[in-house]
Amino acid sequence: MLQDTGLGQEMFVSVYNKKQEDGVEKTMCHRYTDDLVDVETDQENAIPNEQLSERSIVYCVSPPGETQWVKNASYSSSDATEALNGTTIQDSSSSTKSTIQQKYPLVDEEHVSAIIKFYGDSDSLLTSTNLGGAEMATMDGHELFDSHLAQFKDTPVLHAITCKNVQGTMGVPFFTNTQLDDTLSQARDIRGPLIDYIATYFGGDKLVSEFVLLQLLSKVSIERHGLKIGQFCLNISNFNSDSSAQSIKNLVSSLVLHQVSIPLTLETLNKSRFSPQSVNEDLLSGVLQLVPGTHVIVDESELSEGQLGDTGVRNMQALINAIQHQKLTYGFPYSQFDFDVDLGFITLSTRKSLLPNQCTIAVKPAYPMDQSQEDNRSLPTKQQLDVFRMFLQVLRNASYEIPESISQYIQDDFVKERKQASEQQMPLPSQDDLMLRMNLCRLVALSFGEQTLTKDTYDYAVQLDQLRKSRNLEMTTP
Q1: Residue 415 CA to its chain's centroid (Å)
Q2: What's the rounded Cα separation, in Å, for the pair 475 and 477?
Q3: Where are the alpha helices (DSSP H) in 402-453?
Q4: pLDDT (tens digit, 9 = 90+) per residue, 418-470?
Q5: Fewer CB atoms near the end CB (10 Å): N or C, the chain?
Q6: Fold of the CATH domain 189-383
Q7: Which residues does 269 contact at the CB level (< 8 Å), separation at least 6?
């Protein structure tokens, strides 16, 4: 992941001319290296400007929250092993903690880091970008850094020959294209067993399980006039503090590529940094500086009474902004800038969450959730888990459309619903209710492997939402 793109640029000699023993000049390529130029003493000032170029220096870290199954699959591949062979990447457990350690979003977790030098257009280098498919020329860290980069003197340097932004199903190179293509046609057969698997973590509650599935399928799909549409941030209420939040984290991490947990305690809020902050021209990371598509589990059930300090208030604001607007503010000495994110949130809370999630559903386990961890769960095989993982990655990145006839049907149904609510003197469905319903329709359709919304799927999504509302009313009524 690109953590800091602000390390500047450096001038380098791209090619140079060198006299051979026979007196003939030969053009030597000098890209992808930090070695000194091998020229004669009387030629030191004779390198023309057209042989000089610039490259960008960035600081990269291993993707925060990368789940164990992804690490196992990635590092077992021959390409990854070959790429890392003979290269000593900076490990967080070594001597350089302090400032460098604060450049990783999850400060207490071990990770690897490296300086990467990019050639060509630097405008495409954005923080939190997940890089992959790279070919690198490597070398150890050296002592030739400028003074402002002295802290990285022990960090290895990689020269990017080629690389690309990892998006969509590109993030799962350990599955074949044939496997991914087959997943869409088999979606209906996979959906039921996946819901059953998720339900075992919620005491057999299949309604909550279905909403969790929809959340795992969500992503920012459209941005219009600064409004991001597609993410489905879910609040699971009635989650007792003695229930095992860890088991929910284990569930999510068994299915997705990246997952991060935030225990919403006073200590976490008051002592952590959720947003990146530039200090002395060095970008220190924040907990929410994560690669797109990361699933964040916020455990609000641990929140107790107490005083929020200035840092705590800022962290809450950052969390709210990320959930509500999919934006993360980067702080600089005299300014601040908002950067786009694409993060999915599941908030666990005893009552309705303090955070502005798009959807709330109360959990109603058929048996104690701690019991479900031991007695009522038959763990799927690795092959079954791989099918579930492919299902999520393929369908969350699948295309989707609403036919004109269905669009008109939805409008007529919404007008009818508002009219009925008015006649019954009930609260009128709002624009936000309609947006939530449209998002539910998209996610429900994709979960069935449908890329075009049908009337039956729309009706199913409406019924699902009505069941959710009835559940919430039931759980809040004395």
Answers
A1: 37
A2: 6
A3: 404-423, 431-447
A4: 999 999 888 898 988 999 999 999 999 999 999 999 999 999 999 999 999 99
A5: C
A6: Rossmann fold (3.40.50)
A7: 308, 311, 312, 315, 316
Find residue 136's DSSP bridge partners.
160
Coil, helix or strand at residue 419: helix
Q: What 8-state DSSP symbol labels residue 414? A: H
Q: Which amino acid is at 90?
A: Q
Q: Phi and psi (nearest 5°) for 117?
A: -105, 125
Pairwise CA distance, residues 65 & 259, whole Å: 5
What is d(CA 292, CA 276) in angstroms, rounded to the nearest whole number? 16
CA dihedral 460, 466, 471, 472 (to 10 degrees): 130
Question: Residues spanned by CATH 3.40.50.300 within the chain?
Answer: 189-383
Residues 6+ away with beta carbon under 8 Å from 449 = 184, 185, 186, 187, 188, 191, 395
Token match 């070959």: residue?
Answer: 82
d(Cα 155, Cα 59) in Å, to the nearest integer? Answer: 10
Tally of residues, the chain: 478
Taking the whole predicted model, whether its pTM rises above 0.85 is answered as yes
Rounded CA-CA distance 137/33 in Å is 8
